[in-house]
Amino acid sequence: MTISESDRLHSQLSRFEDMFPGYRTEIVEGAIVMSPVKPHHAQTIRRVWNALESQASQEWGFISDVAVPFDADNEFCPDLAVIPKAEERKNLSAYPPDLVELAVEVVSPSSVRNDYEVKDRAYARRGIAHYLIFDPYKAHCVTLWNPGPDGYRGRDVIPYGGEIVVETGIGKFTIGTADLPVDPSAT
């Protein structure tokens, strides 16, 4: 898929987002997926973004909910992705997955399978070195690394309350989880 095809698809998805405010729209396995966004979702993204940005070198930038087309059946919009600052400054509506060094997803009730299974395989196949899943419904973070053809080979589940340390090719990041929001239904 070329960026121009991606721009066309993304412009079509933008119309859905305009028609259904409060929902995030992606193409996953050829289907249009709309996920409702709740306050805990945005708060988690903001806190993780702030933590990463304060530790990243000036060469790295951040995108959030911007299209990252993988193939004809998958156009993901990571909740947060770390890409080269020079690319982020281009202010595009879509970026190739090869630019993503670290991807972050925050689970919503409708995105569980996509975040834990579909994106695990897709991100790993494209060689995205690190993938973090923050889950306010289970009150934990899953860190994934060592991408392979069927998903990530390295995986840790870390309960909220302490710190997550992620050692990447672009630096070591520490993210505190004690203040991350947890859904009242979490056990």
Concise structural overview:
Helices cover about 30% and strands about 35% of the residues. It is of the alpha+beta class and about 190 residues long.
What does this structure look like?
The chain has a six-stranded mixed β-sheet. A two-stranded antiparallel sheet has the order 1-2. Helix content is 28%, strand content 37%. 37% of the residues are buried. The chain has four helices and twelve strands. The model has no long low-confidence stretch (mean pLDDT 87). A hairpin with a 2-residue loop joins β4 and β5. It is globular, with a radius of gyration of 16 Å. The chain has 187 residues and is of the alpha+beta class.
Q: Would you report the number of β strands? A: 12
- Order of neighbouring strands in the sheet with most strands: 3-6-7-8-9-10
| Mean pLDDT score | 87
| Share of helix, binned | 25-40%
What oligomeric state do these chains adopt?
single chain
Q: What is the secondary structure topology, with strand pairs?
A:
Elements: H1 3-19, E1 23-28, E2 31-36, H2 39-55, E3 60-63, E4 68-71, E5 74-76, E6 80-84, H3 85-88, E7 102-106, H4 112-125, E8 130-135, E9 140-148, E10 151-159, E11 163-168, E12 171-176
Parallel strand pairs: 7-8
Antiparallel strand pairs: 1-2, 3-6, 4-5, 6-7, 8-9, 9-10, 11-12
